# Entry
Amino acid sequence: MGGAVYRFGQYALDADRRRLSRGGQVVDVEPRALELLCLLVEHRDGVVSEDELRERMGRGRTVSEAELAAWLRTARLAIGDSDTGQQLIRTVSPHSHRFVASTTVLSSTPLSPPGSAPVTEADHEVIRFCRSVDGTRIAYALTGEGPPLVKTANWLTHLDLDRTNPMWAHWFDGLTRGRQLVRYDERGCGLSEWTVPSFTLDDLVDDLDSVVDAVGLDRFPLLGVSQGGAVAVAYAARRPERVSHLILTSAYARGLQIRAGSDDERDAAEVDLNIARAGWRSQDSSFLRYVAAQFLADATPAEWDAFAAYQRQTTSPANGLRFLEEFARIDVSGIAHQVTCPTLIIHSRDDARVPVTQALELATLIPDSRLILLESRNHLFTADDSAWPTFLTHLYNFLSE
# Structure
């Protein structure tokens, strides 16, 4: 099945590109063992004989029983299995094997020819992949049924984990009320490619453009959350003909380092970044817990710990540092005036991560914008935050105009 990615447990196998990853990190596997694994996974609906494996892998030469046994053992070890356990690759008879793990097939083919509306898949979510301008592979998904609502990627996401993650699950339920939500993982995190050539604002805008092209959308409302708001502003300025409505929440025009105007603010920005850097470089979760407390000010310590653990699942430490530094330098203040569509800006009055002054700045910079401040301290609205249903009401009222 060319172009397919198979997901089982924490593993993802890109059979077309011969690449195995665990939790988004590439697993180094001996090439012949990886080829054997691909054959078993691709033929998981039946039993594969050793004669067939030898024929497929021999390429004109004889494959010995010892060679095949070694490749099979290596393949099992690569996915956390063993010759004795056989939880994933089972020896059905002395000379035949079967891949028995529960497997999800993720398509990497485009949805459909470009058109005005996405394909409806109301009963389940299919994760797909497209290529950005520089060739970086971007994972995207559609949830719900109805007119599209596109959400820019933001810190940090994982398409396969977010649906059940307490931090994000209510967002996807809330944003699919009569809408089809189009979302994707940022380059460098989640199910998108982690090893990327560059990570600039232009790259992030290109990624968004590639996703909506793959879905086949002409014109759509765009939601930007946190630093995803800056990407949404840049996209709406670059492609005004495609964005019908712009919604920005917990967003900012200038990153932490750019907006620091005084020595005290610059020192505070550097301290904030250093704490986050320490969190990504060390195994001490207390540093990432500090970051979590800013995102979810009213959450419990257990929820902060869960968020800190979740961050580590979504990307590598090196990419986590890269995200922080790039977002701290992001600046769309010079192009925000080019946004021509109606814009709704929603912000927590006491946002502990991005001060309300940043929402005021966006409202000043974007011509046709309105600002609504909600009574909350959370940077990301939680399910039990009283501001959450209010946010949804304002969003849907705005989209209906």
User: Anything to note?
Assistant: The two ends are 44 Å apart (CA to CA). The first strand starts at residue 4 and ends at 8. Residues 4-104 form a domain with the Arc Repressor Mutant, subunit A fold (CATH 1.10.10.10). Confidence is low (pLDDT under 50) at residues 108-124.
